[in-house]
Amino acid sequence: MTERAQWVDRPMRWSQLTLSERDAELIDVGFWLDYFARIDSDGACLSAGGYCAYYPTDVPYHHRSRWLAGRDPFGDLVVGCRARDMVVLARTDPHAVHDDAATAHPEWIQRDASGKPKAHFTMPGAWLACMLGPYNFEVMTAIHREIVSRYDVQAIFTNRWKNIGVCYCAACQRAFFEASGHSLPAPDNTDAGLEAAYLGWQQDTYLRLVDVWGAAIKDANPNARIIPNAGLSRCPSPGTVDLDLSRLIEKVDILFADHQGRHGTESPLWSGMCAKTFTSVAGDRPVGAIFSVGVEGPHRWKDSVQSPAELRIWVADSVANGMRPWWTKFGATTPDERWLDVVAELYKDLSEWEPYLRNTTSLARTALVFSQRPGQYRIEEQCCAAFEDHLSGMYQALVEARIPFDMLPDRLICAPTLARYDAVVLANIATLSDTECDALTLYAEAGGGVLATHTTSLFDERGRRRDDLGLAGIFGVRVVGGLHGPMQNSYLALDRSAAGGLLAGLDRTTRVMNGVSRLEVEVTDASASLPLRLIASYPDLPMEEVYVRDAVPGAAQAILRRAGRGRVAYLPFDLDRTFWEVLHPDHGTLLANALAWVAGRRGVAEVQGPGMIDVTAWRQARSMTVHLVNLTNPMSMRGIFRELISVGPLTVRIEIPAGQALRRAKLLKAGVDLAPRLSNDIVELVVPEVLDHEIVAIDFV
Predict the structure, then answer these.
(1) pLDDT by residue (tens digit) across 28-41?
(2) What does the DSSP assignment read for 568-611?
(3) Are strands 155-158 and 255-257 parallel, antiparallel or unpaired?
(4) Can you tell me the distance from the alpha carbon of 282 to that of 157, in angstroms, rounded to the nearest whole number?
(5) Cα(589)–Cα(599) distance, integer angstroms
(6) Are 518 and 485 contacting, i.e. CB atoms less than 8 angstroms apart?
(7) Greatest CA span in the chain, whole angstroms?
(8) Cis bond upstream, residue 486 (ω within 30)
(9) How confident is the model at residue 487, as a pLDDT?
(10) Three-state SS across 344-357?
């Protein structure tokens, strides 16, 4: 990694204008510069070129806006922003070209399996450029060099720079064969190994492209950088790779998470989850949270405006989880101005609170592992499981339990990283390498807590199924059969004599609902606690036949045991995924109790009181903060917020870091100082009300 650019850490509040071609004529540059100043925005991303140039480009076939007419709107915006001391990124979009370019250079265009050029999916007269071939490596390199040479910009932010699906152009065919010795996978390919090889080649090629662009940009301006859009999809399209963020961060100074909003009630990559994912990879590098002021959805209403409540809660949870907000607006005109004041109010508050948002360390003691591997190796097809739903269910359970936690990429599982945490959670992390399994084993034996579900460690890092679980030793089990499911009308028998705290809050019942899928395992540790046992499926119709067939409960569905000095809880069924599907509180209670048992001590912050609150804790240079984001809503993280529902009072207990002396505690949103009780490094205080976002700020002497 080269030396980091000096400007990278400065911007805290980003703004983006994504122009339409007609905006070259219609844009009111003064209006937007005044708005940037009004909201105290210190970074801007401005449309520059690629599909359409908003400056007088000299690169052949780089399409100038038909309304440019001697204007330079991009240049005017850059000059105005730099006069206000804003950091400026030039946005480029290489994914398509116009007819003249496609005719003159057919080698630039994506091809389908029959060799036919791919027309743009919505725009007549436009063609999809191949992002793995000469257009990106040569033409876009020239465009990026031209922009950085002419304008005082700090970076190129490039969007839509990866293919969707497999491109069969001559360049892709040749390059993939040279790299792998194979032909490109056919549309009906069923060879998982070939698919993995192709996705691996894609990954390597895109990362090499980042190097090429970065070198050209720094050659033109040593202080400028390349910032490829690092959007993350939980379910990438077939033949489409999600970049490995842990590899990408080695090449860039800053990340921007392009998950702009929710799509109705579908399972979201919630803003907090997105923030935890990106910040876990970024380390000490800043991460920007791109959010749209409009509605996100398949019908593409680009001039829409999101509800004020949704904007507020989306930004609040992004900030609370460590990201820096970046609003984006499509088009330079404002037919609907209702978002302007909402963003202005948010940004002014964030500007006032800036010293308490410059986080240095997360204080979370729990890590939730995530993986980008299963989609690449088609593991879901073998497990009949949507891995994203396991992660989402566990995420929901931890938020509902008000547990501050980080996300941890599987590729960063190692002794130094694990040592930061009391507990590590593996929500059906099926693919783990031998090295990662060894690190987790040593972590548990040294005193760490591990909570794992379903097929965790059944496959290696390349998707090859093991004969037994890679973590069978610390789980205290061995695999003796296959996967069972979907199970209908199945339950869990509760054994309170072996509960280990797992059944707290589940009084007056002898059974709870089971999950839907289970892995058949046998317990190998006679000393393990087995508080959940299988009540096998039995008929649910006719009603006269609905009764338990087995007099004695069956296989253990929760194995709680000591591994060295640590605690391990293994649940061989899909409790987390079922919780996401059904959202039954019993399942959330079991997951929260299991984590509390393996962790062995309380979190850095505890919150008591009404509502659904996302709790995060951070350290700054001379302070610490606890964020309280009020997710109380009829559908919480699944549906669009229409209104904010106040909750409170909340009692908050915070553990002060060792060696620190309390100077002052205050509520940033309410703007009031507090008089907390302090006992044995525990601060206890009352937050009267949280509407959307409150921050408890504690200054140290």
Answers:
(1) 999 999 999 999 99
(2) EEEE-B-HHHHHHHH--HHHHHHHHHHHHHHH-S--SEEEESSS
(3) unpaired
(4) 17
(5) 15
(6) yes
(7) 85
(8) yes
(9) 95
(10) HHHHHHHHHCHHHC
What pLDDT shows up at residue 602?
87
Give φ, ψ of 51 to 5 degrees: -60, -35
Q: Which helix (H) or strand (E) holds 277?
A: helix 271-282
Pull the structure tokens for residue 42.
Answer: 């210190």
Sequence-distant (≥ 6) Cβ neighbours of residue 290 within 8 angstroms: 14, 16, 256, 257, 258, 259, 260, 326, 328
Q: Where do the domains of the chain lie?
A: 14-253, 364-599
Q: pLDDT (tens digit, 9 = 90+) per residue, 1-60?
A: 457 899 999 999 999 999 999 999 999 999 999 999 999 999 999 999 999 999 999 999
- 8 A C-beta contact, residue 463 and residue 373: yes
Superfamily of domain 364-599: Class I glutamine amidotransferase (GATase) domain (3.40.50.880)
Query: How many whole angstroms separate alpha carbon 484 and alpha carbon 492?
Result: 15
Instruction: State the DSSP H helix or E strand holding residue 148, giving kind and residue range, or none if neither.
Output: helix 141-150
User: In 499-583, which ranges are continuous DSSP H helix?
Assistant: 575-582
Higher pLDDT, 380 or 318: 318
pTM above 0.90, yes or no: yes
The rounded radius of gyration (Å) of the Cα atoms in the chain is 27
**In this structure, which amino acid lies at residue 329?**
K
pLDDT at 235 over 60: no
Which pLDDT band holds residue 82 (cuts at 50, 70, 90)? very high
Domain 14-253: state its class.
Answer: alpha beta
Cα separation of 624 and 359, whole Å? 8
Rounded to 10°, the helix 271-282/387-400 angle is 100
The amino acid present at 681, given as its one-letter code, is: D
Alpha carbon distance 599, 614 (integer Å): 19
